[in-house]
User: What shape does this take?
Amino acid sequence: MFESRELSGRLADVRDEHAPNTLVFDCERDFETLRPAVAEDLGVIVDGFEPTSYPSEWLPEDAPTLLRRYAGSDLTIGMPGDGSIAWTKQTDPAVVLVKPRVEGSPEPFLEFLIAEAFVELGLDVPEHFLGFFEEAYREFDRVVPLGPNDTYQVATALYDGWVGLQARDVFADWRDDQPDLADAWQDAGTRLEGRVSGLSRAVARGETEFADATELACATIKHALELPPPFAALETGAYRDHGPEYAITWAEKTFDALSE
Assistant: This one.
């Protein structure tokens, strides 16, 4: 299931700077969440496990089953919304997993995704939005008038945007010492630019679901693109500094405005 991935010199440099000793593996099969037995196969590769768990009281009553499993004591690696690259600090050392879905992607873009995982590991942020919102997730669920799966998607997006606010400063610095990775970061942002500019109109007309729009908008935050309202309010130092409290306030005001 796991095959060690050889890193280019530039990726090895980023790993050494941000996430020393992290192991990188190509995965044989795609996944959103690894089955516990498969996750535990990493035990022959890593030195040990320290599964993440959170109080069940942090979850709303209708929380998705996978989220309840993640909050529990079982080793849960990978969750919906992780994308093509998953990373975990529940292993010692940390692990980055490259999914088969990246096959066919341009090599510079793939290298950026792996480098991004190293940067996020180095930021020492939570592995999932539940560690970001903590007990405030119940309040977030209250102010978001969507079903549990869409609420999960919005929460994942907002957490990714918050991480992106911090990571993009690192990406911008690559222009000096990692120009190829900086070019890949900028190129990926350029490809998203046209899709983001009309998001507000698409949501207002019912052409795009709010959860999908939030996911796309927050994915562009790490590329330092200009966002349309209401998502522009997330691209601020206030969000970076106040995190979950800001996210809850933003969600409440945004849905109040949409309902008018």
